[in-house]
Amino acid sequence: MTISREHLIWMYETMYKIRYYEDKMAEAYAEGKNPVFNIGAGPVPGEMHLATGQEPAAVGICIHLTKEDTVSSPHRPHHHAIAKGVDLNRMTAEIFGKATGLGKGKGGHMHLFDPNVKFSCGGIVGAGIPHALGAALAAKKKGTDSVAVAFIGEGAANQGAFHESLNMAALWNLPLIVVIENNQYGISVPKSSSTSVSSNAIRAAAYGIQGYYVEENDPIEMYKVSKEVVEKARKNGEPAIIEIETYRYLGHFQGDPEVYRDKNEVTLLREKDPIVRMRSILLTEHGIEDMQLAELEQRAKQEVDAAYQFARESEYPEPEDALKDLFV
Questions:
Q1: CB atoms within 10 A of CB 56
Q2: What are 287's strand-pairing partners?
Q3: What are the Dehydrogenase E1 component domain coordinates in residue numbering (predicted)?
Q4: What is the pLDDT of residue 123?
């Protein structure tokens, strides 16, 4: 399968943007929380889950989606949101709890919603799968060719919502695609201690649908697999499972002491950095010059920096507005 130069460039720039965004969020989140970690302090209070290292899962499939396709995301949502095209200014303002945010500062990091690009996320494990299932059912009822993608972690594949939703999608031929980001740990529990199968992709056979496994956090392979899966979902309403072997370089949450894994593990994982690999592929196999990539990187940084400036300069909602728009 040949991947166009345009798609390769978009994937690289978006992966770079995600990484830079998460690095900036890690810095912003740490403000005011140390030397003794205080989850409620600083400009970004509450729990924070970053997706550094998991970029291929998001860009590899979102490159094939349109604004009319639905994406649901779990509690680690920033990479999915950026790849789907969520408004970066309003998303960042929401995370900072500002009135200019997607939810006027009421939802925060784990509750990002942008109906303009049909993106939603919720903090409960596995909760986004039924939402995506509903969107897939709506697409079929309306006679459109839209698809729905539910991103989940490998731990959520052990939830009842996973099995019930996939069974219904298979029974009714609904265009539901479940992308499992196997980052090796469900909070602090290794996959080998929680799941009886080596790959959740093989569970697809139980529902009579296709399952695919992408090894080594490979953005190119994720692109190829996703292209086939999305095309089948659009044309025939075929649901599918894609599991990608990915890695989170940071803890389950910011401030996580990570006593459950060897620090050398993260060092080894970073040696397989998918952004570095993608950059090398563009330089050596596609004739893209280093200067061109540097320009893409600078553009991504400027967009992210502008979003953070917008968020910091935005006003907090007035206390009397706290309950407005909640009940309609």
A1: 29
A2: none
A3: 46-320
A4: 76
Residue 81 · residue 114 · CB < 8 Å = yes
Q: How many domains are contained in the chain?
A: 1
CATH code for the domain in which residue 151 is found: 3.40.50.970
Range of the structural domain that residue 228 is part of: 5-313
| Longest alpha-carbon distance in the chain | 58
Is residue 117 a part of any domain in this protein? Answer: yes
Three-state DSSP at 307 gives: helix
For the purposes of burial, counting CB atoms within 10 Å of the CB of 11, is it exposed (0-12), middle (13-18) or buried (19 or more)?
buried
> What pTM was estimated for this model as a whole?
0.96
Taking CA atoms, 77 is separated from 40, 63, 224, 257, in Å, by 20, 17, 23, 21
Provide the b/e sequence for 213-232 (b: ≥16 CB within 10 Å).
Answer: bbeebbbbbbbbbbbebbeb
Closest CA to 54 of 28, 88, 77, 85: 77
Residue 67, in any domain of the structure: yes
Structure letter (DSSP) for residue 327 = -
Cα distance between residue 258 and residue 59, in whole Å: 27
β-pair type (240-245, 210-214): parallel
CA proximity to 49, closest of 311, 255, 270: 255
Whether 320 is covered by a domain: the verdict is no
Residue 321 lies in a domain: no
pLDDT in tens, 139-156: 999 999 999 999 999 999
DSSP string, 204-270: GGGGTSEEEEE-TT-HHHHHHHHHHHHHHHHHH---EEEEEE---SS-SSTT---TTS-HHHHHHHH
Residue 264 predicted with pLDDT over 90: no
